[in-house]
Fold these 4 entries.
Entry 1:
Amino acid sequence: MSTENKRKYSKIVVDGVAQAPSRAMLRAVGFTDTDFKKPQIGIASTWSMVTPCNMHINKLAEDVNRATDEAGGKGVIYNCITISDGISMGTEGMKYSLVSREVIADSVETVSGCMGHDGIITIGGCDKNMPGLIMGMSRLNRPSIFIYGGTIQPGPNHTNIVSVFEAVGEHAAGKMSDIKLKNVEETAIPGPGSCGGMYTANTMASAIEAMGMSLPNSSAQDAISHDKELDCLMAGQAILNLIENDIKPSDIMTRSAFENAIKVVIALGGSTNAVLHLIAMAHTMGVELELNDFSIIGKQIPMVADLKPSGKYLMSELIKIGGIQPLMKIMLDEGMLDGNCMTVTGKTLAENLRDVAPYPSNQDIIRPLTSPIKKDSHLVVMRGNLAPGGAVAKITGKEGLTFNGNARVFDSEEECLAGILDGTVLSGDVLVIRYEGPRGAPGMREMLSPTSAIMGKGLGQEIALITDGRFSGGSHGFVVGHITPEASEGGPIAIVENGDKISIDAESNTVSIDLTDSQIADRLARWERPSPRYTRGVLAKYAASVASASEGAVTDKYL
């Protein structure tokens, strides 16, 4: 490819007499005459000191920048915002979490689109910034690579952020002293990196690698490690190779690639948020993907990873035995993955996996396909008269497959958490948390505080929870989220009353209330739509444009 074609976009910004002002400004940030003839690589860094997930990413961005320059490109680092789910969890601030995914996607599109970057490398470390970065790169459809910031090390006694949330419940139940709670708080997060289980961050990093948008092993490296540094350095040469061969996200993020990602997420026991984000990413790429696809694919793939939150091990332990590459090789050899999919290496998935070594024979983190933890997907798409538009449950089998109980209704996450901690919630209850959907909250908060409090109080086998909100990857128990239509849109969850009989069945994949259609219609006729909670600013804009959870909660669905 000629130099001109390598600079497909940047030449519009920097070539010719008329662009002298552009060059003048770029000289001030370090460009030389030689740099103007190189392909420009936008390096989107989500570095921030608001969260340990991203506190180290400035160093990773500098590594990428240096490697890009050495490979013959001109790196340009810019920042995207990030927020922390773990810090804002259970507060009004958590309503900005899912919204931030759209802000990040808008930012990448805006900056690299404006500046004429010929290629894009993005570095993410927390839940929402990963799909947001992928969506931004997809919109521009220029040669692109995603780099995962890496996972955190565990605290003492195998602790992590979920340990702290569950400790709150144990404290409320009188099972943990003030001193012990403070000790867990002080030691569970020892340094940089994303939350340590197969929670949403590690789930999405694994999905993106399986899809082919990050270099092999990017999802399974410690945040502070030589391997993560090499991942960044290798990206510099890889992006120039993508530009040379004009390989774009649309060449990689095909329908088959999304199916590969879903299958790997299922095998790993990943977060329910993957359903929401993969649908959103597919929408952005113009790939047809819907809730029913997860049901169809889920029947074919077993869950084999014994990883937290419902399992025993942390991501750092999976890293030590080889990460997800050996698992993908096993799945490929069994015909579960499409090996013909292109990846950011410029090779197919099968070519990338050809020489991958198997797991050590004495490991028990990844079970054999013949003796899985669950024979089919733990991500269960449910419907029924409480969720005619669909819902998503995380059923590993350890919670049981059915739950019948009496509704105990809360109109916010805070009300529910208070009810759990003060003893209002009782064994046999089906907790209903509503008005937490994408539009109603707005922002579709994660219910990690209530689910962790339930576990901490020892009620994990005795209580179910349903919501039009969503769950953290750290949530476990008998939980059903993403209920659509949401309450604020007049979904049936809006008319549930205390004491109503609710049934959840993970065999028939239904979530239902013991009311006739006419009884539901009568209650809905008396229901009044609540006023918007926000009328100005980003939350108001989000509520006005967001699609349902079943459609990925994207903000450009109906444009």
Entry 2:
Amino acid sequence: MGTRTLFLFLLAFTTCACSNTKHLAKGETLFTGSKVIISDDEASRKERKILINDMVALVRPKPNTKLAGMRVKLYLYNAAGNPKKNKGLRRWLRNKAGEPPVLASTVNLGMNKDIMLNYLLNRGFFFAKGTATAKVDSNKRKTTAIFNIATGPQYTINKTFLVKDSSAINHCIDSTFRATLLKEGAPYNLELIKAERVRIDKELKDRGYYYFKPDYLLVIADTSLGNNKVNMHVQLKQEEIPPEAFTRYSINDIYIYANYRLNGKNTDTSKASDVIYDGYHIVGPKKAYKPLIFSNALLFEKGDEYDRASHNATISRLINLGTFKFVKSRYEPVNDSLLNVYLYLTSYPKKSIRMQIGALTQNDNMAGSQASISWKNRNSFKGAEEFQVKVHGGFELQYSGIARQSNIYNYGAETGLSIPRFIVPFINIQTSNSSLPHSIVKAKYNYEAQLNLLSIKSYSVSYGYSWKEGLHKGHQLYPINITYVKTDTFGTLSQKNTYYSNLVFNGLIIGPTYEFTYNSQVGPPRVHSFYFNGLIDFSGNILGLAQKANFDKNPQGILGTKYAQYMKFQPDFRYYYRLSDATTIASRALIGLGIPYGNSHELPNIKQFWAGGNSDLRGFPSRLVGPGTYSEYAISHSNARYVQTLGDIKLEANVELRQHLYKFLNWAAFVDAGNIWLYNDNPNLPGGQFTKNFYKELAADAGLGLRFDFKILLLRLDLGIPIRKPWLPENERWVIKDIQFADPTWKKNNMTLNIGIGYPF
């Protein structure tokens, strides 16, 4: 941005700031917001900060919104004037892009003060007092609301009692009362009282009390103790509870409408053509589904006591089958203690076809496109088995840059069958109540060619299992994994000053993989969230031991084909700290450890790690950082270079501040650090082997980014620059002092723009 452009930009925003009040009617001022002052110190400093933020948020009306400190929407509203036409740019600016001024005359100070005091009352500050005044700046025609609050002491819970009676429902409540949320010493809080009523209701629903409601509970606070203490008394509203709410219900008949259509023509209670299987009534004109899938999915049967947890988990299991678009339920009393259950299942179309096409841009001056078409059958063998066939293709072309790279073309096909149950019985495998386990068979073929250099063909088949253990934990185990890789080279391994010998692998990869995922982000937003993904990948271990394979002295194979032998571990840990609704700090630590041995000197190319790219080290070119102190990046303008540099070991750490700006627009500031290394020495990549000095060989970058969050798609732009270059002499690797934003040559060689889809982590 030039000096003149920057001056005009700042002038426009200054004009925006100064002109927003000149359009106000005589005697009116602009309401610019509120300030809450807590005048006593009864609450802790941390608590006062929370109270102030909450009370400011309660004030109505809210002031005009700001962008970068300016009321841009109000400026657009004023700039549009009073359009005479019902449509056009001016009307759009005024009514859509802009917003009218929030006048101080519309702010009821007394009412807002009372709302704040009521909020404090609900938080246990029973004797809070306050005043409200308006601070008027006549020159700028602006008004700020000032609320001066004295909270007084906050009451805390002394003890919580259940008012007992002789009813069975009261006995059930008493048996769960140790888990009460109204703990001794906790501050009095109306929201906590509401949560306690919901907790008791859930416990009762899980014990058969189908018609019970939280409103049937009364919580009384006794403040007569003194010393700012209250006793909490929980009791049933005996006179308001209907007889059915005192009754524990059991399940009678269960009717499953497997072909229910949302067209208003179904008769809910029709039981014609039902088939009884395992105690369930399967109703429908067509036998589109094997009854076995319902027997596996449902977690209750005739004679069971009603349990809302089992009901909710059953609905979730049916939806997670992927076959049913909608699942509705209805309970109908048969007598004083029995309920009939009706489940209405609306299916997706059995077969579907999907096409996708998109553009991509890499940060090494490569751009291209990817396209795919897939066909899916959601009920292949009438047991909710999902069969899918997919073909894809794409290309990457270099559009600029001094060092020329080969264009890349790829295509492939894959097919898979997912069956919603364990085919081979497992013992003591714990699965989530809300998700069924799946047995999976997959086959894949992929072809990738780098023009005039090489082509890599890979064929793979695998069989395994996927299941969830609770809401946050997931497992994937593939005991059978076979991949065959064939590399064809065009000419020598060094052609046109481009080296790619490190990409050549011909042979088999045979071995199991296991992956564990933990994600605490599932559910409501939390201040602290964690994500962990751990991968274990073995190949050729038993074969190598049996054949006493050795890469140098005794290489072995199967039917004349070499196989890889290695152990690979990859833990990926992420932590998210939610500072506010608009601001989050995200961090990641990734360790990749590949140990080639026996029949292998290094990991196969498709199993190795790389560094650099739009979700990795964003200040460096894609897949060209390291290994170690070797730098393809440093010699990228010389006469010799590698297509990619890969490694057997990887360390990476990232920290990113994410903040919401306006509607779909967010921004981020980030720092990345990491590198890759070789497990064994390779003379063609000097300085690439992992040593005890690895921490001195870390690359680092920093940058800023924009995120365009369109809900169904998040487009990410990240601009990164190197701040540490491990290939330089050891005392010269920090290059922050060398940053020269005004130098075109420095910018060309160091600033990297990344375009990506979704968050990097």
Entry 3:
Amino acid sequence: MDIRSWTYLIVGLTFAVYIGIAVWSRVRTTAGFYVAGRGVPPLINGMATGADWMSAASFISMAGLISFLGYDGTIYLMGWTGGYVLLALLLAPYLRKYGRFTVPEFVGDRYYSQAARVVAVFCAIFISFTYVAGQMRGVGIVFSRFLDVHIDTGVYLGMTLVFVYAVLGGMRGITYTQVAQYVVLIVAYLIPAVAISLKMTGNPIPQLGFGSTISEGAHAGVYLLQAIDEIHRELGLPEYTGTFVAGKKSMVDILAITLALMVGTAGLPHVLIRFYTVPTARAARWSALWALFFIGLLYTTAPAVATFARVNMIQTLHGVEYADAPAWFKNWETTGLIEFHDRDGDGVMRYSGDPEQNELRVDRDIIVLANPEIARLPAWVVALVAAGALAAALSTAAGLLLVISASVSHDLFKSIFTPDMSEGQELTLARVSAGAAVLVAGYFGVNPPDYVAAVVAFAFGLAAASFFPVLVLGVFSKRVTKEGAISGMLAGIGFTAAYILWFKMLGLGDASDWWFGISPEGIGSIGMLINFAVTLTVSRFTPPPPPEVQRMVEEIRLPSEPHREVAGDVRGDAPA
């Protein structure tokens, strides 16, 4: 069978599994819809969290970033994995011990203010829609290439699928669907990585092949990283392994992006809400550990995948007659994501670091998807990668849409506007909210502000600048007040959003105008510092929190006795 037939078969089978799980796990209570009844085992939750976390940015775009940026691209690896350490140590067990359903609910109760809750809802929805735009765009890219439809049509197809299992099954359905999606995405990522590593270096373990010598071709006997550096120098590109050199990011910007990604990880509402689904605070810690393990399987493979693809791409395109271009190039050219502009009219394709001489434009988001075709792997492997990419994008999109749904139905309507609504009415509103969120997410998928990983990086910056400071201070400081928290969240997210809007959406400046040389992807680190400063300063000049709030802060930090810990919250709610 050809690639398209294999894609229809494999993608169709995986979609049938996802929908089947959604039907099997459909819920009839708000506890089931929001937090899966708080009965998810740590191992299962860790796997679901891994799928929730490894979005289109991780599967599709991260290796593409490393492939084009070299060393600079690894900041995404460091930031996204390091954030889980912060999450496990500073937030996950305490938020689970607190209980309840959502992050805005914790903010509203801890800061004894409905206004704080509303601000948190706004931040959660803003962050989630920014993040989900990248996921839906990733879905569109996959469909456009492998099912031969327009990118926008691919986005609409993805919207339909997410609508079915997110609206029907809620968090319970999403959790078990994400477990299946993790299996699909990790198998899809590792199989081609192992095959290409074995083919290029003779080593079947990609992490080791990454540091091995090339076994065949013009660079046979040369270490892979040494070969890619030589290729880059010949083409006038910055060295692949070069750090802080001309044409690459500065040390300050790399530090800022890494920090923003780390603290953003610990502040993302769709990740935090996963730790409400386990039975106990201890289980929340184990969930974070398992999640880091499952994520590490892909993240330690990504640099190898990026480098293999980079070498193969350049060797199969540079200096080749356009008429003799490989089949993979022709296939992807129809999507508009790779283009040849014959500047000198000789029909020979040239890839160069000089913009005046470069004749190839390659979208970095196609690297992982095109990698099996570039390496001439079987058609079924190509189709499997397509299914993995869809699994990665859809799993994260579902988690984000649930956050938006819960923010609207539970944190706004149930908690503020109509507190007397019944559980059935709230569940209906949650499903309607999820459906509306799917439509808005689809719009942003059709009209994204940037490439997938950049859009996701913006979401991390917004989370770092809004949620991380008030959550950490809410757990570890009894003195922080509602006025401080509200002011800090608004100042942090306002500054960060304005900076991103100014440079990325409106295009009113370039890199020379960045504050302290920090790019929009890293500005969330400054927004976080602003949030901390404003929150602590305002809290110092406002009355301290009520005694009962201070007692709550003390209680959620106290170790729970194993025989007394329940799946409720610290204020005596019954177990879910």
Entry 4:
Amino acid sequence: MNHKTFVLIGGGLLQLPLGNAATNSGYRIVVVDGNPECPGADAADTFYHCDISDPAAVVEVLRNHSEKPALCATSGTDFSDTVAAVNAHYSLPGILPGQAELLTDKLKMREHFQRHSLPQPAFISGGADLDPFFRDHPSPHGYVIKPVRNMGARGVLRIEHRQQLSYAREYAARYDKAGRTILEHFIPAHELSVDALVYKGRVTLTGVADRIIEIKDNHYFIENGHSMPSALPADIHRELLTLMQKTADSLSATNPYTGALKGDIRYTDNGQLIIGEIAGRLSGGFMSTHTYPEATGIDLMRLFIELLEGKEPNLPESSRQYRQVSIERSFTPEPGVLESLVIPPPPAKEVYRHVSGKAGDLMEPVRSNVGKLAHFVFSADTLTAAENSWTDFFSRIEYKTTLPKIPEKELAALARNRFNKEACRVCKVCDGKNCASGIPGMGGAGSMSSFRDNLESLSQFKILPRFLIGDKTSQTNTPRRNLFGHSPALPILIAPITGGATNMAGSITEWEYAMAVVSAAEKTGSLALLGEGAAPDKFQTALSALKIKPNGFPVFKPRSDDAAIEERMEAVRDSNISAWGMDIDAVGIATMNRRNLATQRKSAAQLSRYAELSGRPFFLKGILTIEDAALAADAGAGAIIVSNHGGRIFDGAPGAARVLQTIATYMSTHHPQVRILADGGIRSGADVFRMLALGAEFVLVGRPIAIAAVAAEEAGIISLLRQYHGELTHIMAVNGLTHYSEIRKDMLLQT
């Protein structure tokens, strides 16, 4: 063979078939990938470790190669701009930089298609003034916000209305290196995936598949597989060819487009083809590499290489290529630690499988096309036969996942790597003594004396063991107590923390944090309180998360703007939420002040009116005196939370443990109908015991939950809650206690 060099951008599973085809065509393979342990590293003749999202860096690293490349390509990745940079530097055939830029930058793509009158959703840059867009371009089916540069639907969210934009834009921006987003109409339709080869501007349509798209939790777009060929009639294939040809024509203004085009196309109920996205590559998702060859008998990788070598594809019309049906289906177990996994042997109709996980792995929630456990390809004479074979096979997959357990030290180590050091250093003990920040940030106000006193006041109470009262049991039998229609199994709830961008300095987004806490609450038998922060629309984060997983309550700021509070009460009234709260101690908090948003003390009459507007019971957080506790009861509060807001309001406030017993004793005598909760400085199950002994029925944990969420999101929070609960029940068992209500003040010694 006359060996030449073929540069393969990306050495992952979906790039290897292209590399193998190039090897079979007589090329020496150079693989470039940012992962030194990728499959292509071992398969390559030469491997270069380099970030393939940096075109200049890839060109520079290839300078070290002794031989000039003959061809450069990728498949299944959105790094066509890197391919184009190599092509331009070495004068290779294929996609060029200007074309690649239009096909990787989604905003430029939309603007380009708009100039060429190609059918697509209404759109706008996420950084623009969006109010006119929402006003002038209403969408009956909602909107999609996405990163300008992303892959695999990472960071893509569907939202229903304008008010959800605040958290959605923050979430999408996290997945774009420059923080850019694009907003467009969501158009429900039959989803199609289209592959095409383009030779000097002339399009040959190859694969057309029906995509199976799930909108999980009403927000996330997840492709669970595809069927090849599409069940749509042949005339739709011809319309697709026309659309892809128009797309190629629009890209050929300076130089005729040569290479691959991959289209995500929507076919609407009224017969319109709408461009979702176009990429300058062959498709991923096992379509170009597996289902198309199985369905047609055609080696698309070889055809692609021949096209780059200068040979025009000679294929029959797309709809006439297929000899059988081929389907790809993915499998993802429930989140948790995968304890066991049994996948049956391949049946006759299974032609390929890829399993990426094993027992012991942590299965995280899937929020995009990334992170699935396994993929399978089935082929048959008909779609029904292929699907029946898959359905039978799927029913025989056996697995078990359990709630994860990550030790506290490991959680802290993970959090130190992920927490922005300007907000939190993840100290060995989160006590405010060496805090990285004040407010905004995770710290306290002033000298942080109020923050520190939460821990110091708790530490003054020692737990007195009763070793002779009863034997230690392996498990306590604790009846559940009702709280606004919920019966949490744990007495440990999640305190309302907000400010992914401000208080946590971008270490986690508002939406990721909200979903982590409500999901963890659901799986542990806890409840999550979700704050709203200062931004006007941020309360929608809490309402949207609780709509998906109604395991908690929103907590609102005591704003001076009564209309803003009324808006929130109306939203609660229209929701599935059983109660709401107000952190009345947020009067004058710095995060509100820096936005020039006024707060005010509230009267019993105001609070009663809010409750009437909402149609729901309410609770007040931030009670430190008997007087405020009595006024809360007069206003109709169903519960109070004894708290100094984590020491974030002003210096000199007492730790909650100093006043909890006095308030609890008074309320049990004068207002026994009001539930007593408390937070502040809880760092262990022993601290939970202390708070319960001082009179709280439930306790709330704040900063440690935020640290656990940054460390490992839902899994981190679950692990922390389980640790605290385990420590608590151990102390109860040592003392012979079986009910939380049996924990009494005389079990503590104040020092």
